[in-house]
Design brief:
Helix content: over 70%
Order of helices and strands: HHHHEEHHH
Shape: elongated
Radius of gyration: 17 Å
Length: about 170
């Protein structure tokens, strides 16, 4: 990802808002690149990237990245783009959990949009494919959820080893 501007506290004193922009830019650039790679494999795969990107872009408070960033700064350390990237990795892990959670509890919506399993089911139904649309949607959403589980490893590959090392202690082993 491209370097991010240093969060320096906004004029209203909102420490979350100062981290949100750089994290969202990092996520948008990263996910756009992953979608391009997927479409190069086969255009039909784009719905997976669309669901992941859509869920990430639909909002969220971005508390995890803010805690990580300001915890880093509270140690007396200077701004580090790698910590912003690590915060984005935390959001990807959260996305993994949300996609799987919606399948497990049968949520119809997430952040005001159809849950991924609902969207995949609708695509199956509209395409006239064989099999049960509900099961297809649940399976596709579970598999789509696996991508943001491994994406943090890809994203953290672009940060200095000492920052990635901290992330490896926080992230579950795959």
């Amino acid at each position: 990802p491209e370097p991010t501007p240093e969060p320096d506290g906004d004029r209203h004193g909102d420490p979350v808002a100062t981290v949100r922009g750089p994290v969202e830019r990092t996520l948008a650039l990263f996910l756009a690149a992953r979608r391009r790679e997927a479409v190069d494999l086969h255009p039909a795969i784009d719905q997976i990237g669309h669901e992941i990107s859509g869920l990430v872009a639909a909002g969220g408070k971005r508390l995890r990245p803010a805690f990580a960033y300001w915890g880093h700064r509270a140690t007396g350390a200077a701004h580090d783009d790698g910590v912003v990237v690590a915060g984005a990795a935390l959001e990807l892990l959260h996305t993994f959990a949300l996609l799987h959670d919606d399948v497990m509890d049968g949520s119809e919506t997430r952040r005001g949009l159809p849950a991924a399993h609902v969207a995949f089911s609708a695509t199956h139904r509209a395409s006239g494919w064989r099999g049960e649309s509900r099961r297809f949607g649940e399976g596709a959403a579970a598999l789509a959820g696996d991508l943001p589980h491994v994406y943090p490893d890809v994203l953290l590959g672009d940060v200095p080893p000492d920052v990635a090392g901290v992330g490896l202690h926080v992230l579950p082993e795959s």
